[in-house]
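A reminder from the course coordinator: this example appears on the midterm review sheet, so study it carefully.

Given structure:
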């Protein structure tokens, strides 16, 4: 009886939501130009719900919540090493056979020789290092350790970064809406913000320790960097105040390279904004000097990261990935030949965007596919590209070049990921999927202004977004269940049965 009531409540809410999203609904009546205190309250509730649910899901799998840390506690351990004045891990169990190997990065040779080693660490000149981005150590792990005297469990850092990512996406979408799409329904803004936030943090939610800590921190900082650059260029008339915003954006953007260098490539999208800024305020010597001063965080952070890399690996541009101990010799990757390998890049693009999902008979029925396959709401960015009226409005707004640059940077990041990694994993898409969401949101906003039957358009977009959210939940569930222990899996199926009228066992 309890399961039946829970299922009825759950699916009742789903049906109410679907009914609310119908074309004639009052849900689409108020526009962004009519933003009110109530709009703030509902937005805050939606953000809080996303953060609460995603944070809870991050805590349920013992493989990631610190109960079975394995090699995933590197951020905690490197924090302790830094406090001792070391740049390497303080391990006293280095296998002598590893030191004697001609090529310690050859997995087959290590296995044949029976070498014990610390998985997924960088190993160089007889010492173990962390090749994951170091910036989260100074943003969260070190302050927490110094204040509380206890180490910060890694997944908690991911919870913080994903929470700030969600807030940042809502902020960026609201900024663009208020600036260029004041007639966009607040309801559609809420639907798209919720769905695009879910899509952007899905992989961090399902795999929160270590791997996604570096990615989520980089994405978080980059989104907020973009927000402050948008404020500086498009929302502030006074030059000095604009440059203060730009300096904050520069600092956050520069720190991204110390989290996840591939995400750091997203800083390129600032260049069209810089052109807009200089056209707006002129090319006087004063403006140019102040602009250069606002960009100095890039120079300072770059110098610190280059020192850090050189002190560890004797190369200012080596973050340690080439020396990691996994199943593949990473020293064979990242050459120019890999970057310009056309077939490999095309295969990578197909995998990332158009790979079909595997459909299974058992719950949760689907596994990863390409982004446009999993999330059909993203197709609107392609529909907008062939819609002349939408392109015209983008050009008139001055955002066309910026949107094209974002798309080009996404392709660049995919190409670099193909070159730098021996095997693509869809979780790497978190590096750039948030940028696709920004493109899709912007295009949908401008498309709305060209529609004759706007209610029908809003409903169509909302239903497709709803479908995308459902696929997102299924793919995330598939990933999480693949990492659960038997006890955790049994508990998960009890929840699933409670939501499915007991039909799924």
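Designed residues:
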């Amino acid at each position: 009886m309890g399961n039946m009531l829970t299922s009825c409540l759950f699916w009742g809410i789903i049906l109410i939501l679907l009914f609310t999203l119908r074309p004639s609904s009052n849900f689409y009546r108020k526009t962004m130009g009519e933003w009110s205190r109530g709009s703030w309250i509902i937005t805050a509730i939606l953000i809080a719900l996303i953060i609460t649910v995603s944070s809870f899901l991050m805590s349920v799998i013992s493989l990631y919540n610190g109960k079975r840390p394995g090699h995933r506690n590197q951020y905690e351990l490197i924090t302790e090493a830094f406090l001792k004045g070391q740049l390497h891990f303080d391990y006293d169990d280095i296998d002598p056979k590893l030191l004697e190997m001609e090529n310690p990065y050859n997995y087959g040779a290590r296995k044949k020789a029976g070498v014990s080693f610390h998985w997924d660490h960088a190993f160089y000149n007889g010492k173990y290092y962390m090749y994951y981005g170091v910036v989260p150590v100074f943003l969260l792990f070190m302050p927490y350790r110094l204040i509380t005297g206890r180490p910060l469990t890694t997944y908690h850092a991911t919870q913080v970064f994903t929470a700030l990512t969600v807030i940042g996406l809502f902020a960026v979408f609201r900024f663009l809406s208020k600036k260029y799409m004041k007639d966009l329904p607040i309801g559609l803004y809420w639907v798209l913000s919720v769905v695009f936030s879910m899509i952007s943090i899905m992989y961090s939610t399902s795999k929160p320790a270590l791997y996604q800590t570096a990615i989520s921190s980089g994405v978080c900082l980059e989104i907020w960097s973009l927000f402050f650059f948008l404020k500086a260029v498009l929302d502030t008339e006074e030059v000095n105040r604009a440059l203060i915003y730009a300096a904050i954006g520069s600092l956050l953007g520069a720190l991204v390279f110390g989290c996840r260098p591939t995400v750091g490539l997203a800083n390129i999208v600032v260049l069209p904004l810089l052109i807009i800024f200089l056209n707006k305020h002129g090319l006087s010597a004063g403006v140019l000097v102040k602009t250069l001063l606002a960009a100095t965080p890039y120079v300072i952070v770059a110098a610190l990261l280059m020192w850090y890399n050189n002190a560890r690996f004797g190369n200012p541009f080596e973050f340690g990935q080439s020396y990691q101990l996994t199943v593949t010799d990473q020293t064979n990757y990242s050459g120019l030949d890999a970057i310009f390998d056309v077939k490999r890049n095309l295969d990578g693009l197909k995998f990332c965007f158009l790979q079909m999902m595997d459909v299974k008979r058992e719950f949760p029925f689907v596994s990863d596919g390409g982004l446009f396959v999993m999330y059909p709401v993203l197709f609107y960015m392609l529909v907008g590209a062939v819609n002349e009226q939408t392109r015209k409005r983008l050009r008139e707004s001055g955002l066309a070049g910026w949107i094209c640059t974002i798309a080009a940077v996404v392709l660049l990041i995919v190409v670099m990921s193909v070159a730098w990694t021996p095997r693509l994993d869809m979780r790497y898409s978190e590096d750039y999927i948030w940028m696709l969401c920004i493109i899709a949101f912007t295009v949908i906003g401008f498309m709305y202004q060209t529609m004759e039957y706007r209610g029908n358009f809003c409903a169509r977009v909302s239903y497709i977004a709803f479908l995308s959210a459902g696929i997102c939940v299924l793919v995330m569930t598939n990933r999480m269940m693949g990492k659960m222990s038997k006890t955790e899996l049994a508990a998960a199926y009890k929840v699933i049965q409670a939501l499915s009228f007991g039909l799924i066992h």
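The beta strands are 122-124, 127-129. The chain is about 65% helix and 0% strand.
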